[in-house]
């Protein structure tokens, strides 16, 4: 199963709250390289967020994030919300995040048909800004939207 937030799988950044500078821009989240990160602006208060638009309507089955290392900008608490239309969002994850590097993956109890995924960091480990390496969205692209692409 592919991560549908990546540029190569058709994912794109729809919007985001802030970014620190061009080397740690939010668009780094759309690239496969795990050493590139999104670091939010140190001048902006939490919560910070990023919204991905997936190429097609998708039956979403798993979401998550990847953290490259341990620092005080790592998320301490996060939420993940989903939407079919970018207007009505449903919260599917609301959790404390362990202070460690690695994947934090969440399986949905039942698949949801969506096109937008919003990742919200509400608390960090005490630093200024937040630091995230990757955002994940895994699922099955719906056949009827595949046909519209042709």
What does this structure look like?
The chain is mainly beta and 150 residues long. It has a single domain (7-149), classed as Sandwich (Jelly Rolls), CATH 2.60.120.260. It has one helix and eight strands; from the N terminus they run ββββββββα. Strands 1, 3, 4, 5, 6 and 8 form a six-stranded antiparallel β-sheet that branches. A two-stranded antiparallel sheet has the order 2-7. A hairpin with a 6-residue loop joins strand 4 and strand 5. The longest helix is centred in the last third of the chain and has 7 residues, at 143-149. The model has no long low-confidence stretch (mean pLDDT 93). InterPro entries: FA58C, Galactose-bd-like_sf. Residues 33-128 form the F5/8 type C domain.
Which key phrases capture this entry?
150 residues, mainly beta, 1 helix
Looking at this structure, what is the CATH superfamily?
Galactose-binding domain-like
Please tell me the CATH architecture by its name: Sandwich
Q: What structural category do the secondary elements indicate?
A: mainly beta
Helix percent band: under 10%
Indicate how many domains the architecture comprises: 1
In total, how many beta strands?
Answer: 8
The shape is globular
Question: Which band does the percent of strand residues land in?
Answer: over 45%
What's the CATH first level? Mainly Beta
Provide the succession of SSEs.
Answer: EEEEEEEEH
Q: How is the biggest beta sheet arranged?
A: 6 strands, antiparallel
Domain F5/8 type C: 33-128
Protein name: F5/8 type C domain-containing protein
InterPro entries: FA58C, Galactose-bd-like_sf
